[in-house]
Amino acid sequence: MSDISRPDRKPYLSDLTDAQWALIEPFVRASECGPQEVLHSRREVVNAILYIAHTGAQWRYLPHDLPDWQLVYHYFDLWKKNGTLKRIHDELRVKVRKKAGRREQPTASILDSQSVKTTEEAETKGYDAGKKVKGRKRHLLVDTLGLVLVAWISTADVQDRDAVQAVLPIAAKVAKDSGITLEVVKRSDKDRGFVLQAKRWIVERTFGWLNRERRLSKDYERKEESSEAFIHLGMMRHMLRRLA
């Protein structure tokens, strides 16, 4: 079957354009095939996953003119576990940086977190006493364009200073693979109390971008790995719009 959207259905606003699909197709083509490849094009499966991410719909409530929800979830789970979604995300980030006239890999980054509520199905959750939120925290390390370098999910009771110990090793691996040196820029010892840090607004803007995806308005996921995957999907949509 040709890998195009079904011509007999009206497009959704979350559907990929031809140019956007061309950026993603090589990655989903190279990944492991599912059991019903001949029945549904990969493009329609990706469209269905993006529909879930953007509208916040439950898997079982996918419109009937999209592939069956069980098949769509199968691919989401597969691409989440085998790293396909993250590979697409990371490649799109490189393309956006190059289009903006930047180096492929950043020389500076900003780390911050966001506490969000979870549903009763969440396997892990905690209480952020400062924000008065019971749920999880999204820890993002972004470049100076606001593009995500590292996304890490924890329970909401994890302090930011403790999260750094988990995020930095991941960032160090990214830096090593990219051939750059990781250096942590600390606040001046002369500073007392709250001091507005330069570039802090950049990561706040990234959280704002992600909040436009209704699936990310709250943490609806049972597993932390799925929460991370939807962050990558949200950023993929953002970057695809900038590229095509």
Question: Briefly, what is this?
Answer:
The chain has helices at 18-30, 42-55, 69-81, 84-99, 160-178, 200-211, 224-243, and strands spanning 109-117, 126-128, 133-143, 148-155.
Explain what you see:
With 244 residues, the protein is an alpha+beta fold. It folds into 2 domains: 18-81, no CATH class; 106-221. 44% of the residues lie in helices and 13% in strands. The protein is built from 7 helices and 4 strands. β3 (133-143) and β4 (148-155) form a beta hairpin. α1 packs across α4 (84-99), α2 (42-55) crosses α3 (69-81) and α4 (84-99) packs parallel to α7 (224-243). The longest helix has 20 residues, at 224-243.
Keywords summarizing the entry:
244 residues; alpha+beta; 2 domains; four-stranded antiparallel β-sheet
Rg (CA only): 19 Å
Distance between the termini: 25 Å
Average pLDDT number: 88
The string of secondary-structure elements, in order, is HHHHEEEEHHH
How much helix is in the residues? 40-55%
Number of helices: 7
Number of domains: 2
Major β-sheet, in short?
4 strands, antiparallel
Annotation, overall tally of beta strands: 4
Q: Which ranges are low-confidence, i.e. pLDDT below 50, for 5 or more consecutive residues? A: none
Kindly name the structural category: alpha+beta
- The best one-word shape is globular
Percent of residues in β-strands? 5-15%
